[in-house]
Structure formats: C-alpha cells, structure tokens
C-alpha cells in the first residue's frame, strides 16, 4: 500500500471520527459554555499526550515546534470561537450550509500560497459536491433551502470558515522535514489552550468544569482523545502527503457520515432524496481526490 492510499484512509477515518463528535457534542451541549468545553477538550488531550516527552528526542524537538504549533492552533481555535459566537445568533443549519464553502475557500487560498490553479471543470465538480452536501443538510427539502438567509452570526461563521481553510493551508506550509508529528500535535493543542484561555478571558466565559461528571465525563474523554488527539494526528500526517485541497474536500462527506451514524445509533431514517445527495457529494468528492 503506497503512502497516498494510506493518507486517504487516514483522512477517511478522521472524517468519520469528527462526524461522531457531532453526536457526542449534542449530548454535552447546554451543560457549560461551548468555548469552555473546547478548552476542557484541549486540556485533557494535552495532559494525555504529555508523557511523550519522556523521550529525549521529543523534548529536543519541542522548542523548534511550539512556534509553528501556536500559528496552526491560532486558526484552529479561531474556527471554534467563531462557530460558538455565530451560534448565538444563527442556526446549526446555517453553519452547516456555510461550512460547505470551506473546500472551495481552501482551493482559492492554494492559488495564493502554493501557486496552484483551479480549472473550470474543477469548479464544476466543487459545485456539484456542494449541491450534494446541501441536499443532505436540508434533507432534500427545497422549501427549507429557499428560506435560507444570512444574518450577523452567518457573517461571523464565514470568517470562521476562512480560518479553517487557513488551518489546512498552514498545516502544509509549516511542515518541516524531520518533524515529529506527536510533538506537533502536542504543540497545536497547547497553543489551542492558550488561545482559548485568552478568548475566555476576553469574552468573560466561566469554566464550570465541575458540571461535567458521571457519564458526561466519559463523553468528554471520547471528545478529547478520539476526536481531538487522534484526528489532529491523522490530519497533520495526511496533509503532508495529500495537500490542503484534497484534505478539505473530505468536508463534503461529513454530513453524509453524520446521517449514517444517526441512522445506525438513533434509528433515524434516510430518505431517498438524502441518499441522492449523499451519492452526488460522494462521487464529486472522489473525482476531486483523483485529480492531480
């Protein structure tokens, strides 16, 4: 199995894990402020990963990695902060819809950072993938789509989406030969703690971590270990091989994976219209991934 195929498998696993985080996050929502939950995730994940520094090699790499980790985590954190602030004045449906712009934003940014080009047929494929994803998000309901409108929260989330696109760009841009990925993941998480702490102070967000107890703590551990540490590692490893455009193209598959997970765990049906949307977004994403 060559490195490219391995990278695609890694991103597929990461996308599935992130899809599962929507289900888990839903059970934690409303307990404490979402920004505080995100920082809690980062703290737990950092503590779990910290024993890697038993190895002298990893300690030696830390100082040269932390500066880049702070930059990468800045865009990673801005996305989460922007999303949570946006949800104060917009809906989950609106943010899910706008998030379909991230792959196209990434492709445009690749022109600026890596001098890559977008051909007309590539734009068509991006649009088809976006349409398929929107069909899944709106559950094939044309009336819901026609009533979609932008508000102040949506404008905040568009900035968050740009930040997510920049996150994938800087994953590739700041990679250096000889990097130890676990150290880079740790540095990204540590940077995330710093940025989240500053955001909490600026926005006067209370910690209230004591409210996360019992079964909720197990859900928190799942978010921290599986959907934070593991997905960060998988994304950072895959981005080196696949590049930013292909990495973000998997975004189109996320709503479909959420739909299947909800079908499996919550017994919610998938309508024929939604299946068409899943098929469209999947085929278009595969075409994007197969392009050089």
From TrEMBL:
Residues annotated as domain EamA: 6-137, 153-289
Subcellular compartments: Cell membrane
Keyword line: Cell membrane, Membrane, Transmembrane, Transmembrane helix
CC terms in the record's Gene Ontology section: plasma membrane
Transmembrane segments: 7-25, 37-54, 66-84, 96-114, 123-143, 155-174, 181-204, 216-235, 247-264, 270-289
Membrane-protein topology: Multi-pass membrane protein
Protein name, per record: DMT family transporter
Organism: Aliarcobacter thereius
């Amino acid at each position: 199995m060559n490195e490219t195929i391995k990278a695609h498998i890694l991103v597929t696993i990461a996308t599935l894990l992130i899809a599962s985080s929507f289900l888990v996050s839903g059970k934690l929502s409303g307990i404490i402020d979402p920004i505080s939950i995100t920082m809690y995730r980062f703290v737990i994940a950092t503590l779990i990963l910290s024993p890697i520094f038993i190895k002298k090699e990893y300690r030696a790499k830390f100082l040269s990695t932390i500066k880049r980790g702070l930059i990468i985590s800045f865009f990673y954190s801005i996305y989460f902060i922007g999303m949570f602030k946006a949800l104060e004045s917009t809906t989950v449906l609106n943010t899910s819809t706008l998030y379909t712009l991230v792959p196209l934003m990434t492709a445009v940014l690749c022109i600026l950072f890596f001098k890559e080009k977008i051909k007309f047929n590539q734009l068509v494929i991006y649009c088809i993938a976006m349409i398929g994803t929107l069909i899944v998000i709106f559950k094939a309901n044309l009336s819901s789509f026609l009533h979609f409108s932008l508000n102040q929260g949506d404008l905040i989330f568009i900035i968050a989406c740009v930040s997510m696109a920049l996150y994938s760009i800087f994953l590739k841009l700041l990679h250096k030969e000889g990097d130890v990925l676990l150290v880079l993941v740790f540095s990204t998480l540590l940077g995330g703690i710093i940025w989240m702490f500053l955001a909490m102070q600026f926005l006067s967000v209370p910690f209230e971590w004591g409210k996360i107890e019992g079964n909720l703590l197990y859900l928190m551990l799942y978010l921290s270990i599986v959907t934070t540490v593991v997905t960060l590692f998988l994304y950072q490893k895959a981005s080196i091989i696949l590049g930013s455009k292909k990495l973000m193209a998997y975004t189109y598959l996320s709503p479909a994976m959420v739909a299947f997970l909800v079908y499996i765990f919550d017994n919610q049906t998938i309508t024929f219209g939604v299946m068409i949307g899943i098929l469209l977004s999947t085929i278009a994403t595969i075409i994007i991934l197969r392009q050089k």
